[in-house]
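Need the bound structure for alpha-L-arabinofuranose, inputs here:
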Amino acid sequence: MLTLSFRDRFIGSVGIFCLTVCAALGQTTKSQITIHADTPGPKISPMFYGMMTEEINYGYDGGLYGELVQNRGLRNHPSNPVHWSLVTTGTGSGQMYLEPGSFGDMPSLKVKISSASDSGAVGVANDGFWGIPALPNTTYRATFYAKADSEFKGPLQVAIQSNDRRSILALSVVPRITRQWKQYTVELKTRSVPATSDNQLVIAGLHPGTFSLRTVSLFPPTYKNRANGNRPDIMEKLAEMQPSFLRLPGGNYLEGNTIAERFDWKATIGDVTKRQGHQGPWGYRSSDGMGLLEFLEWCEDLHMQAVLSVFAGYALQGEHVDAGPKLQPFVQDALDEIEYITGDTTTTWGARRAQDGHPKPFPLKYVEIGNEDSFDRSMNYDGRFTQFHDAIKAKYPFIQTIATASVRSRKPDVMDDHYYRSAADMERDSGHYDHYDRKGSKIFVGEWASIEGRPTPSHQAALGDAAWLIGLERNSDLVIMEAYAPLLVNVNPGASQWPTNLIGYDALTSFGSPSFYVQSMFAKNTGDEVIPTTVSTINSGPTKPFVPHGSIGLGTWRTDSEYKDAVVSHDNKTLYSKDFATGTEGWKLSQGTWKVDGGSLRQSSMGDDTHATAGDANWTDYTYQVKARKLGGSEGFLILFHAQNRSDYWQWNIGGWNNTRSAIQRHNRGNTEEMGRSTDTTVQTGRWYDIKIEIHGANVKCFLDGKLITEFTEQPIPPVNAIYAGASRVTRNGEVIVKVVNVTGEPVRTEMVLQGVRAVNPVCVGWELTGMPDDVNSIAEPTKVSPRSFRLDTVSNRFARTYPAYSVTVLRIRTRR
Ligand code: AHR
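Answer from helper R.:
Posting the output first, comments after.
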């Protein structure tokens, strides 16, 4: 059943009104787009559309980076060879264990075969990243180091084998191995087998004795056949986005949870088998197979420029290095990194790059100093930025610096702004940069996304993206670059850490989301000059009075906490009260381990965003009181109000951000925004707190132990437009490119007026992306929402066209001025 959203219903009624009134007036147009081709607009930055990348959601390992073996370096766990298992067939028997530091400080995998024969093998298997793929007629390349004891001489069988052991999909044999570590390479060729991924890579012996393995690797054919290269299907999708730059590596991955876990570029170059890998901030270890040179080669393959992010002395959990002599080694590291990228072979690091296989320097214009440094509570970024900026400018005056938070002491060439919001918020804020100061730094919107759809965006998100991008393009005298984030997600259960991501894949195939198609449609049709455009359009928006409302709830984030005596009152009258000693009736418990314990409701898991909600979603103007006690873990309490459902609610986060702050947060379809002022708050373990939230109309006051901590008054949400449009010109041939988004559930008849062009070619080509708001693409339906091309034959200076419901359209109109 299709349920109409408020927006649909409103537009629906406008549609009926319009049909009646417009018909009476003899008109059919509901919207008009005027393209002022006679008015000069800003040049569009040639680096406008790009990509942001980091190791998140198994984006490199288990994603773009071709390696198929998980835990190749055997360091994912100190004592367990995770992702490896012992395999025996027939009468074979033996053991497998991890031997730490057996080669230098590299661990190895020891296999002791007590009995084996031609009919009973013993070996080890790697389960890959949610399976080892076997595609038909494909040559895989396995490499590994091996050594044997005096008894064992080989042979070793290397195979891609189905998990049920019934099928060997590709097999090769290493006849002998020696008592010294030596690297072996074999080809594993599949025949015309069906494509499967429920397979393992198996290395097994057929005779008793002991052998050891390390750095076992399996690569499929890679994009442009690069050694240690990337998965072709994903690279082809990235190429379709025609990106002009790659922000590398961006995001939290640059910073790491601690300084020791930062992206330390020097540990990511040189012989892949010697790279140790490092713990990333998204809960898993990175092999560092995708190192600095691999990033640069990725840029080379897709004709992109690197936008280099350098570690700037601040790590996610708050560790930081003050500006001054202690920061200098990190500044030097950044200078060395720039030299590695741009230096010729007479420089120390340019020579090192040549030694690593790439004598030719790479182009580099932008260097970003840190990532999201407004999170640095020590307020240290100004000094850190200045030290990096001055050192970089002194040695590389042609480099433009990018700041990630506001700075006073220097004027950064560029500021990096990030936005993760709902589609409606993106649409509403499409004019964000229209009135920005043009004398300040240029803007790089280095991370943004309409967050709707899991693990990849829905069509609704794509509409928000398109409206937002039209606003960015219109301001491209100021906004010189943009990059959607995150870029990649392995869609297997448990593989993703971020809700909404551009391109999805499993071990076998990949797909672009509707938002991916918006990016590629827009990037392929950029033009080089903005044409000022005006849109007269109908609005959809709230017609009901604005009264925030919702039910109540409790939650935790990586914390064991208990709650009791929840009371909701209105005008001193109790609307609801709960004594948990009577059980949890009336409460919806979602995520986490909730249990009544001694009269309190306790959540004991260390999960993120655990929730328990109760009450009436229509409640307005109420006081919510509850007692809370922390029993363990890293943060404090989440007190929910204005709750509509699991993804639309408000909360007072007390002792969030690693038990340092409290703030009111609005959650809407995966998007979290801080509302109002946050305050320094630390929750003590073992102590009961009295929590009170008073709601009067749109005003919220939050009290802890009777003291007012924070307050916020919500403003009515402004309406979104029905139609968003922007235009640009290809200066070379006068072609006019028009982008139109209809965010409503109604087709919108629109008249397009081209002012200031002499002649218009009546034939024009276009592309259109349509779907229902909740439609998503997936492995099973990879192109459910994808653009279709079309042709119009009656284009003129003034022509009407109906833009379908929920659509993104690009038109290329040939004109003469
Ligand atoms: O894109 C996901 C994360 O969002 C990035 O790592 C970080 O920069 C931002 O907070």
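Comments: Residues 54, 56, 251-252, 371-372, 447, 485-486, 498 surround alpha-L-arabinofuranose (CB under 6 Å). Residues 1-29 have pLDDT under 50 and may be disordered.
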